[in-house]
Amino acid sequence: MDRNKLLKLTETYGSPLYVYDTDIIKGQYKKITSAFSKVKRVKINYAAKALSNINILKVFNSLKSGLDTVSIQEVKLGLLAGFDPKNIIYTPNGVSLKEIEDVAKLGVQINIDNLSILELFGQNNPKIPVCIRINPHIMAGGNSKISVGHIDSKFGISIHQVPHIKRVVENTGMRINGIHMHTGSDILDIDTFLRASEILFEVAKQFDNIDFIDFGSGFKVPYKTGDISTNIEELGTKLSKRFNEFCKEYGKELTLMFEPGKFLVSQSGYFLAKVNVIKQTTSTVFAGIDSGLNHLIRPMFYNSYHQIENLSNPKGRERYYSIVGYICETDTFGSNRRINEIAEDDVLCFHNAGAYCYSMASNYNSRYRPAEVMLYNGKDYLIRKRETFDDIIKNQIEVSL
Ligand SMILES: *Cc1c(COP(=O)(O)O)cnc(C)c1O
Question: Rounded to the nearest whole angstrom, what is the distance from the C-alpha of residue 219 to the centroid of ligand 1?
């Protein structure tokens, strides 16, 4: 995105600031749907937890995307954004039977990931079809902090427990209408992913009236130059062919589903922050910004890399910096980064700030969460105002001592 435009937005709306370019979101959505154009029924359910501002959800609804949710609050946000409950899938982990039943009452597709709740839900609601989340015990690559498909993972019903699922179905008279997996790992090796898909097909065969197979997510996007990303065209070609074959075998036109978050929104986001202080130490030069792990925790939480650019001095000499936050913790955004010379008050831009950035922000150190701006059809819209002191105290109850 144009550097001057980002600087102007920072002037208008203040710093720190999140900016989302919806043209990029639309482009990514198109990429994924085009890759699977050979499959008759395809449904992309955007994973709301990546970036859950209601206006972003509305953009997805306008694209005819579905919504993947993990809490009843995300379901309610989706409904508020105008989604038809039929286009929302609810894939929780470790939530109560009560919450699942409350969501089912809203008409949303339920996806259950453990046998105990499956049995209770089936007994109480035999008429409501449910999807089951399978753990195929396959690692498609990536690090174990984000991978949720390994043998010790808390997610999904083990592939080895399918006979037990069938027994629950028989005992309760419930119907399984979908088979799901989400391994959480990055799809780098397409053949490994296809192997996991074969496992899902094997499971699907054992249920006689399913409507869809949901392959979860794991689409990787580049965060730095030279990063490998998922070859979506290759995945589309190979999986579409196999999926169509499977539908023939199964004797029914099934819907192929995916639920990407990062792929759809990561690159649309820019996080803009101002430099408060330049500090030379014996080992490095720190640039301390007016933000911290309270606004963008991914570098500290996942050790993830976000490219950092100095918008204010694009032609300046390149020097080495450690970019750090103002929180009283070690909150390093990037160490030893080569960046155009930084001065106090310069505006830095963090790339790939669309997914899991604002949605993971907090009030730690009693700081305000930043504002969010959306670019839509060439115009900028403030879609969330910056917090104020009222937000910090609004739920606190002062006791007179
Ligand atoms: C988080 C999540 C996703 C999205 O994952 P990305 O890596 O952002 O694409 C999809 N499905 C489920 C069940 C999830 O929990």
Answer: 9
